[in-house]
Structure formats: C-alpha cells, structure tokens
Structure to design on (305 residues):
C-alpha cells in the first residue's frame, strides 16, 4: 500500500507496564524518524499495560496496544507479524530503550542493504543500580559485520529489523520456544539459524543503538541464565532430531565452554558467575529433554491461524 509506513515496531510484553511505557516513550521522542507504526503485543492478564502506554502515547495514532489472545513471546510476535503492513518489521524488547536517532539510523542502514538481509543493531548495557545485575543479551562491538552460513554464535538480538520476505524464507518463530513456554528461551536463536540456513545474511550495524535496562537482581539473573540454557537445549534438540550434525557439534562446544567457565570463575572466587555457568549447563540438559517430549507428542512449531 502506498500509505504504508516504512517500519512497524513490535514490542512483545507481559505484565511489565512500566517497561512497556518507557519503551514507547523513548521511541516517540526520537528525532528525524521515518514513517512508522508501533504495536505493543500485550499478553498481560489485566489492562495495566494499556493504561500505562496510553498515558505516555497521549493519543498518538502511531501507537497501538494489541491485547493478544495467545500467551508466549513467539506466539505474540507471529500474531503481530501477520498484521504488519510496513516494509520493515522491527522487534525490540520492552526493557530496551532506543537511542534518540535509533529509527533514523535503521533507515540509513536498511537503505544500503542488499536483498535477503536482516539487520541487527547494537544493544548496550544500561547502568546498574544497587543490587542489580548486568542485563542479558548485550551486543556491543564497534565494527559492522555480515554473517552467513552456519556459525557457533547466535546473532539475533532485541534490536532487529527485517523485511516480510524473511518470514517467507524462514517461517515465523517456533511457538514451542521462548518466554511463556516450558522452554523459555532461544526463540530468536532458532529463527536466526533457520534464516541463515535459508541463505540469508544477518548484518550487524552498530549505529542503531538500544540500551538494555539493568533491572534484575543477581538472583533473578541467575534464574534467567537457567531459562536461557533450557531454551538453548530445546533449540539444539530440535535440530539434532532433524539429523543436523553441526548443531550436535554446537551442543558439545557449548557444554565444554560452560564447564571451562565454571572452573575459571570458581578458581577466581567469582561464585555467582560459576553458579551462572552451572545453571546454564543444567538448563541445556533440561531443555533438550523437554523438547524431546514435545517432539514425541507431535507438538507443532506453530499454530495455524
């Protein structure tokens, strides 16, 4: 459509109205932005998120809070993608704060991209308050990068932009993975891996920057490390079941890395870091077992709308 915006910004959220409202506020106060719409994919059980977002959006027609009938980050994203009419879909988490020229920088970046390419921007850590832990999912390197083919590193972060054709190539997110499921992580990693296997490129550009808030306590971050491990174990088991030897190699590599990390941090007296490595490694095993159970029961990747 000729009147379609350049970007649609999708913010999945569940029960975190203050975070969602802060993300919307930061997006609406940017400078030099191209035409965009914003969908807050709200899976909450009450109206608190809608009220908090309305208070900062002040009736701005570009912002819509869409109450999702589904639960789970992957399901919410897939539902939001189906209704997207913009040329580019942008995904950001509710606890990330875009910089003042974030969308303008994305516009400059996507304008020079070749076809069959998605873009991931920089994700930097926000300041830590008393008792807070470093935020997860940080991607902070100064130089651009292009990623193709199989890789031992996962490159999809909560600062992602892609054209509709990427969904046609890789499909939507696996709804068995991610927050809100029994395998609460790795939905981004799985989607990125499938995208690379479909022959696409993931381009990292440092200019479009978001700040990942440091709001979790150390114990909460430890629990999140285990959740990430469960997610990654589920992701590995899914592809190993499809006879993918590279993913089997990645699993062994990951287990070895966690064992080494546990030993090094324990010897250095960093007990919390050592516990984090152990929690992640234990999560890998748990996630693989849970995915195996889903596969045996024939649970599909996505529900057909």
């Amino acid at each position: 459509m000729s009147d379609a915006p350049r970007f649609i910004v999708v913010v999945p959220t569940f029960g975190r109205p203050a975070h969602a409202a802060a993300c919307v506020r930061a997006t609406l106060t940017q400078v030099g932005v191209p035409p965009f719409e914003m969908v807050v994919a709200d899976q909450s059980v009450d109206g608190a998120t809608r009220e908090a977002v309305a208070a900062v959006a002040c009736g701005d027609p570009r912002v819509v809070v869409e109450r999702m009938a589904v639960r789970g980050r992957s399901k919410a994203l897939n539902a939001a993608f189906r209704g997207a009419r913009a040329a580019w879909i942008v995904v950001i988490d509710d606890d990330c704060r875009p910089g003042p020229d974030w969308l303008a920088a994305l516009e400059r970046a996507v304008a020079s991209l070749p076809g069959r390419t998605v873009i991931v921007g920089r994700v930097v850590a926000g300041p830590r308050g008393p008792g807070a832990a470093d935020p997860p999912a940080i991607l902070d390197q100064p130089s651009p990068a292009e990623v193709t083919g199989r890789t031992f590193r996962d490159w999809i972060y909560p600062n992602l932009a892609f054209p509709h054709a990427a969904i046609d190539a890789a499909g939507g997110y696996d709804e068995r993975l991610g927050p809100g499921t029994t395998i609460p992580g790795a939905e981004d990693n799985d989607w990125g891996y499938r995208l690379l296997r479909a022959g696409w490129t993931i381009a990292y550009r440092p200019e479009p920057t978001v700040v990942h808030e440091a709001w979790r306590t150390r114990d909460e971050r430890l629990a999140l490390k285990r959740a990430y491990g469960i997610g990654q174990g589920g992701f590995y088991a899914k592809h190993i079941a499809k006879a993918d030897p590279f993913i089997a190699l990645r699993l062994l590599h990951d287990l070895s890395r966690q064992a080494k990390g546990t030993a090094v941090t324990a010897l250095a007296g960093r007990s919390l870091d050592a516990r984090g490595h152990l929690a992640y490694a234990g999560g890998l095993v748990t996630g693989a077992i849970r995915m195996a159970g889903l596969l045996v029961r024939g649970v599909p990747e996505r529900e057909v709308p």
Summary: Residues 219-297 form one domain.
